[in-house]
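Why do we care about 3D structure at all? Because function follows from shape, and shape follows, mostly, from sequence. That is the central idea of this module. The next example makes it concrete: a single protein chain, its amino acid sequence, and then its structure expressed as tokens.
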Amino acid sequence: MLISYNKIWKDKVQSPWAVMKVEDSPNYLGSKDIIELQNGKDVSQKIQMVSENLTGVAIKFANVDKKATGIIEIELLDPNSKLVERWKLDCAILQTDGYCNVQLKKDIKVKVGEKYELIIRPRLQDGKGLALELSRPSVITGHANVKGEKNISLSLAYKLYDGDGSALKYLIVAIIITALVAMLGSFLMMKKGKIASTFVVMTFFIGCIYIFVLPPFAVPDESAHFVTVYSKSNKLLGKEVADKEGKVIADSNMGLYFIREEYPTKESYIRFVKGALGKNSDTITTKEGLANPLNVKAIGYIPQIIGVSIARILGGSGEQILLIGRLFALLWYCFVMYFAIRIFPFNKMIIFAVGLLPMTIQQVCSFSYDSILLGLCFFLISYILWLIYTKESVEIKDVLILVCAISGIVMIKYIYIPIIGLLLFVPKQKFNFRVNRKKIALYMFGMLSIVEIVSKVTLITEAAEKNMQIRSDGLYKYSIGYIMSNLGDTLVVVVRTIFEKLSFFVESMIANPLGWVDIQVPNIIVMGFAIVLIFSAIPNHISKKTTKKLMIMSGVIVILVSGLVLAAMLISYTYVGSDIILGVQGRYFLPVLPLILLIIQGSKNIVVKDSIETELILAITGLQLYTIWSIVSVVITR
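And the structure:
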């Protein structure tokens, strides 16, 4: 760590902090737009301030010709059009595409919402050789203008600087202290033999680190999930939910939504460290519409809604609202997993290891509904197995708990409903009341199916169309009618997907890649966790073992869920003509990973003499700390 700090962190701590970066995310699938610089055609744009200080700016150049000669003049004007500073850049220093930083001789005080003007005057000797990169604008960015031409609907790609990266020191100190507390707490719980408590301690503190090292909006679709949570919070607090366009109305402290980084950099770390300490100012001064919320029921976001609402009532900053919302998602997950591990009748390390995979922690520490979904799926599996192997009798309250868990899962993601197939193995003599297990399972499946079909009638109607539907990009998407008419070709696509992407599914289910599929961690981490998963499933001589029938049912459930995942992505995401099913990621299979390990656990060929729980917990701790350091090392160098 010290070596890495000396080589990387020292420079990053001393480098300027971009309080705002206007640039299309690497996740943006559109083509990059540019403005070719030409003599006599000055480029200008109004730049809105988002902090109380300005120490410099940066402009992103493109199509740089190394042979280009001449001068680029950059002027910064205040709101009264008075010159703040002028810079003259020799084209010789612009060797590659990217940002060119210019610092103010003296830092200036600015006000949030003030609009300064940036002017770029090209003075190229051969009249060409440089361009400026453009970006999609937001409500707080202006539009670029070219002298003598019509206004452009896009913004310049630029940065605004406010100080340096010294806040990164706090992040490193916090990570080290939290990691030490996690290890100490876990050690104390292990000595007492409390596996469930050990899991809670490890998950909470490691999760707190993840909340910062994978900052808000760095997890897939988190911006959409946050907007949805905020809309539910508005409703809970009795505030106006959306504007005429359906966009969720947010207070001024959520202006950072418009300068979010889905591709995290050191700037993301600095912003959220400072924000957590209450040192950031709002980035806008008025209420604004964020975006349209997802059509997802509130049950998938209950912890986040509560956390966000409490933070808003207490007057938290935008960063604090985001962090507290994430923290409540983590707390819920710790709560439900405590009981899932306690009642799990087999080797408890199965649930322990799956629940602490890097991909699992990434998802449950975000605004995604996966905190509820994964927690409920793991709990449901544990609860049903507990009824089968441990509890002497099934009572009405057990049925109510099952109904609540199953209903929650179905209302979030219907594709995991096959898990209820485990109910068929609850011995009928355990019921204290007259009941037909098969009828209950069928009735429950039928009732939930009807509810889900009614709630998604539009989507199902589109999927059932015989004629192919056209996507927004002009490509045709799959429908059930098309699949039935071209069953052979569709099966080829499914089989090809499995063979070509199986390795990716396994890796991305465990740890690689994280974030928006952009943070690569070392393969040794994936291998290490894979080994831990396998050993967690190996029973010792006193462990209970699954029956052959239960192993078969577990396999059937895994196949059914996997099939539903592929089918859902085929219809909702894949275009006709694609070689494989698009959009499928390993994390979609996490809810049934314990069942895969149960199949391994049922093997009678391999048994360990003594418990290896302590060794596995130490291995998980070490691998998680290595993962955290790998994430930070990737993000900090961007």
